[in-house]
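Troubleshooting log. The previous structure file for this entry was overwritten by mistake, so regenerating from the original sequence record. Sequence copied from the archived sheet and checked twice against the printout by T.R.
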Amino acid sequence: MKIIELPIEFESNGQKNYIYPSLIILNNELTLVDTGYTNFFTLIENEILKNRHEIKNLKNIIITHYDDDHIGSLYDFKERCPWINIVASEIESKYISGEIKSERLVQAEEMLENMPNEEMEFGKWFIQQLKNLKHVSIDEKVNDGDMILDNKCKVIATPGHTSGHISLYFPSLKSVITGDAAVKENDELVIANPQFCLNVEKAEQSLTKIKNLKAENYYCYHGGKLTL
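Regenerated output below.
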């Protein structure tokens, strides 16, 4: 088994940006962790091909949490690869499937009410982005401590950024896929966008929790891989 980070380059507000979804290879079967923004299917597929793997071997997609940069292309993946098993936490599943309005949308709508005029346009655009996300049903719902992927991966509940956020721990690889529970900044693990955390205190606790795993490799969706 191994983990590969997939650096996805894109432009936003005239600047180059990157996200780093993870690809897990186990017995020639692929598991993708998070799917980028809307219309990122081809970008991610190309990166998978660059690593000499094929999309036809993609067996699972694990979603760490409901945010537009993590679930944006989930619908496209399910459309083009209908055999894929989609995995998410019990809590996040309700938002991804559209059963409940997402916490992020509720937060964005509340923030818009007190937003300064110069930020109002962005606030409205962001809300529309969230509303445009297509709902996808979850095939496998997981909870803290569950062992998945042939018992080689432990689900770690890391709430704070969102309520049902999960990270993934691979004891045999001494590695953690953090989602947004941690981002890499200046060769350190820090909280992702504290101003958007639904609960900063819980986010701090979750960061401590994954640091305490004493892993050697932390695969961060923002900032990329940190090796300690």
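The two ends are 20 Å apart (CA to CA). Archived copy saved in two places this time.
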